Amino acid sequence: MTKRILVVEDTEDNRRIVRDLLSSVGYALIEAADGAEGVALAQSEKPDLILMDIQLPVVDGYEATRRIRAIPELAGVPIIAVTSYALSGDEAKTRAAGCDGYVAKPFSPRQLLAKIREFLPPQD
User: Fold this and answer.
1) According to the model, what pLDDT value does residue 89 have?
2) Which terminus of the chain is more exposed, N or C, with fewer CB under 10 A?
3) What are the E-state strand segments in the chain?
4) In a domain? residue 105
5) pLDDT over 70 (residue 5)
6) CATH of the domain at 67
7) How far apart, in Å, are the Cα atoms of 98 and each of 1, 74, 77, 110, 122?
């Protein structure tokens, strides 16, 4: 079965890059443009993994992650922060909010795919 990834990212260009990369290797994508929409789609779609930007409109990625973690049926879904926040301590903040992984922008496609595959092994 095709693994589904929710991408919570407010910048269309960034969503397009991730969409092109992940669809080319067989993942199905669900997209949200703000944190509140990301929480709602996580709850309704129950993705296999979530890529979460941190600097988002409406609800930031920290709070969106905390809200998703509070939903019992989503507690085990891996969440990877994909963010331009790359200063000392920023990765620890994402983990404190509930993220399982961290990728700093700008990222290489290979780097992002490797991080995703830590949580979702390659598909047949």
Assistant:
1) 85
2) C
3) 4-8, 28-32, 49-52, 79-83, 101-104
4) yes
5) yes
6) 3.40.50.2300
7) 27, 12, 10, 24, 24
**Predicted structure pTM score:** 0.95
CA–CA gap between residue 19 and residue 69 (Å, rounded)? 24
How many residues can be counted in the chain?
Answer: 124
d(CA 20, CA 43): 24
User: Which residue type is seen at 87?
Assistant: L
- What residues make up the domain containing 13? 4-119
What is the C-alpha to C-alpha distance for residues 34 and 45, in angstroms, rounded to an integer?
A: 16
- Work out whether strand 101-104 and strand 79-83 pair parallel, antiparallel, or are unpaired: parallel
Inform me whether the pLDDT recorded for 122 exceeds 80: no
Classify burial at 116, counting beta carbons within 10 Å of its beta carbon; exposed 0-12, middle 13-18, buried 19 or more: buried
Q: What is the pLDDT of residue 123?
A: 55
pLDDT digit string, tens, across residues 52-106: 999 999 999 999 999 999 999 999 999 999 998 777 788 999 999 999 999 999 9
Number of domains in the chain: 1
Residue 14 in any domain: the answer is: yes
